Amino acid sequence: MALEIKQSLRLSQSLVMTPQLQQAIKLLQLNRMELAEVVNQELMENPVLEELGESSENSQTMEEELQAGTSGETSDPEAEQRRDEESFTKPAQKEEQLGPKDDFNWESYVEEFNSNSSTAPSMREINEELPSFENALTKTTTLEDHLTWQLSMIALKDDEKKLGELIIGNLSDDGYLNVALDELSKEAKMELEDAEEVLKIVQTFDPVGVASRNLQECLATQAKFLNPRQPIVEKIIEKHLPELERKNYPAVAKALSIPLDQVIEATKLILEFEPKPGRSFHASDTQYITPDIYVYKVAEEFVIVLNEDGMPKLRISPYYKNILASAQKDGSNSKVTKEYVQDKLRAAVWLIRSIHNRQKTIYKVTEAIVKRQRDFFEKGVQQLKPMILKDVANDIGMHESTISRVTTNKFVHTPVGIFELKYFFNSSISAADGSDALASEAVKEKIRQMVTKEDARNPLSDQKIVELLRNENIEIARRTVAKYRDMLGILSSGKRKKVI
Question: 426: Cβ–Cβ under 8 A, 6 or more apart, which residues?
Answer without folding.
Answer: 384, 386, 387, 439, 440, 441
